[in-house]
Design a protein that fits this description.
It holds the Pfam family RibD_C. It is a single chain. With 194 residues, the protein is of the alpha/beta class. The protein has a single domain, classed as 3-Layer(aba) Sandwich (Dihydrofolate Reductase, subunit A). Helix content is 18%, strand content 28%. The chain is built from four helices and ten strands.
Length: 194
């Protein structure tokens, strides 16, 4: 069975982006970028790969499917890119977006939980939950693993890691790594009741 993996950057005060979707306040480090480009090349948008030193056809290591909300997807649309991760099957959750003329992008107006449960049963690599906060909140009970890039910065306001109701869930740390910019990456797996 495939896992739903929430791979995301977060500030010390729990925000994945600023109020207008800003992410440029996270401190960048060459060692961190190089390590992640090697470990998770599929997380590098297709159009950015040549600038990151990755061939466009670099194979996916962990994920072959991506889920994102309308707000996350609109960042790509704003710069004229209809398929930001053309090397992945992309599902965009929105009740207002029109269908996209690209076989790699599917706009979904329905229940994200229903789609994730179906995708988990299909063959393939794991599924990357890219963002945003609303979609993550809807899928919180379906998240099997989290890869949290914690940056040593306070945002003060913005989009939270999850939005939604109070639903505590336990995760266990399986790995942690620190980089020269002070960022820590933590891998966590959901603790399932026995």
């Amino acid at each position: 069975m495939r896992n739903l993996v929430y791979y995301v950057a977060v500030s010390l005060d729990g925000y994945i982006a600023g109020p207008e979707g800003q992410v440029d306040f996270y401190p960048v480090a060459d060692d961190m970028a190089a390590w992640f480009n090697e470990r998770y090349p599929e997380a590098v948008p297709t159009h950015i790969r040549p600038h990151a030193g990755l061939p466009v056809d670099t194979p996916n290591n962990e994920w072959d499917t991506l889920l994102m909300g309308r707000g996350t997807y609109e960042l790509a649309l704003a710069v004229g890119i209809a398929s930001p991760y053309d090397h992945l099957k992309q599902y965009v959750f929105s009740t207002t977006l029109a269908p996209v003329d690209n076989p790699q992008v599917e706009v979904v107006a329905g229940d994200p939980v229903e789609l994730v449960r179906r995708l988990k049963k299909e063959a393939g690599k794991d599924i990357w939950l890219c963002g945003g906060a609303n979609l993550a909140g809807q899928l919180a009970d379906e998240v099997d693993r989290m890869i949290i890039k914690s940056y040593p910065v306070i945002a003060g306001a913005g989009l939270p890691l999850f939005s939604g109701g109070f639903r505590p869930a336990r995760f266990t740390v399986t790995q942690r790594r620190e980089f020269s910019n002070g960022a820590q990456v933590t891998w966590l797996d959901r603790v399932r009741p026995e």
